[in-house]
């Protein structure tokens, strides 16, 4: 994935969070196999573009306003890979097992070259997540009697 990102953004500083490190990528590439929630949040605030699985992290990316390319890697991500891009909050690269996967990621990254488009995605994502979901769930559960 870092190679595809390097092709799209030759001078970018690439940070790989989780997963495995990649070799053969020229330029600045750092690998962070495990981050605390605080450190991940700081990374999201200090990053221009992300490539992410379309799971629950999608909500955190939206709250952070981080323009991202989403990749579906599990069946339970089908709604995310459809909903978020359709709402104009993220760009989809489709499913990880598509035979054109890396080309799809490259094309999705190309759409993020425009700073104004990234700003639009950021604003749309943030408008869709208020960051108070845990509080609402807590209140709901405390009012339910078993």
Entry summary:
This protein is of the alpha/beta class and 146 residues long. Helices cover 47% and strands 15% of the residues.
Care to describe what's here?
Helix content is 47%, strand content 15%. The chain is built from seven helices and five strands. The strands form two sheets. Strands 3-4-5 form a three-stranded parallel beta sheet, sandwiched between helices. α3 links the parallel β3 (50-53) and β4 (68-72). It starts with a helix and ends with a helix.
* Oligomeric status: single chain
Strands in their spatial order, largest beta sheet: 3-4-5
Number of strands: 5
Most strands sheet: 3 strands, parallel
Following the backbone from N to C, one meets helices and strands in this order, namely HEEHEHEHEHHH
Q: Tell me the radius of gyration.
A: 16 Å
Uncertain residue ranges: none
Separation, N- and C-terminal Cα atoms: 47 Å
Total number of helical segments?
A: 7
Assess the beta-strand content as a share of residues. Answer: 15-25%
| Average of per-residue pLDDT values | 88
Shape: globular
Helix content: 40-55%
> What class do helices, strands and sheet pairing give?
alpha/beta
């Amino acid at each position: 994935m870092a190679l595809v990102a390097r092709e799209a953004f030759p001078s970018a500083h690439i940070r790989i969070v989780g997963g495995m490190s990649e070799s053969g990528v020229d330029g600045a590439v750092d690998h962070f196999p495990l981050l605390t929630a605080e450190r991940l949040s700081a990374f999201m605030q200090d990053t221009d573009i992300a490539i992410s699985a379309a799971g629950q992290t999608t909500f955190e990316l939206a709250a952070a306003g981080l323009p991202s390319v989403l990749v579906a890697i599990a069946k339970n991500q089908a709604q995310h890979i459809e909903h978020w891009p359709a709402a104009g909050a993220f760009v989809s690269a489709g499913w990880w097992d598509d035979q054109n996967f890396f080309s799809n990621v490259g094309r999705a990254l190309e759409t993020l070259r425009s700073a104004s488009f990234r700003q639009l995605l950021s604003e749309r994502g943030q408008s869709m997540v208020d960051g108070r979901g845990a509080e609402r769930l807590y209140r709901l559960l405390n009012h339910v009697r078993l």
